[in-house]
Design a protein that fits this description.
The chain is mainly beta. The chain has no helices and eleven strands.
């Protein structure tokens, strides 16, 4: 669910989705970056990590680096569109937070989505993004990740 009163961060404080591409490993579909400057809405750095799976059950593995070992609130920023699917996240093999609903008739940012407080270790942590379905109105299972914030 969106975090009330939060705004989309600029490059400072956000781990940009498109910068996670180097660590991205997908079980299905290509992983690219996409410019979002032609769409209305607030995306950090006006781009996203764009994953294009074609089925439910597909999984995208990413590496998220934490500055130190501690428990953080994990906040995600995503995109919704007419051909996007629903996703669930796991952190270090532990399911977290809500299912993010990807469908919208227009291309729009989700705003901040809290996945709750999660323990992370300093350095690399495994983030798994799994497509768990889609709205009946959606034409596909695409996923757009604007970025993540680790809030102490």
């Amino acid at each position: 669910m969106p975090v009330e009163g939060a705004t989309v961060p600029t490059s400072r404080g956000i781990i940009e989705g498109e910068r996670l591409r180097a660590s991205a490993r997908a079980t299905a579909g290509p992983v690219d970056t996409q410019d979002l400057d032609t769409f209305p809405g607030d995306w950090s750095d006006l781009s996203q990590l764009w994953w294009r799976p074609t089925r439910s059950g597909a999984r995208l593995d990413l590496t998220l680096n934490a500055p130190e070992t501690k428990t953080y609130e994990l906040i995600g920023y995503f995109t919704r569109a007419r051909d996007y699917g629903d996703i669930r996240l796991s952190v270090n093999n532990r399911p977290v937070g809500p299912v993010v609903k990807g469908y919208s008739p227009e291309v729009v940012p989700t705003g901040p989505v809290s996945f709750g407080r999660v323990p992370l270790r300093s350095g690399a942590n495994a983030i798994a993004v799994e497509v768990v379905g889609k709205d009946t109105r959606s034409a596909g299972y695409l996923v757009g990740i604007d970025g993540f914030v680790l809030k102490p």
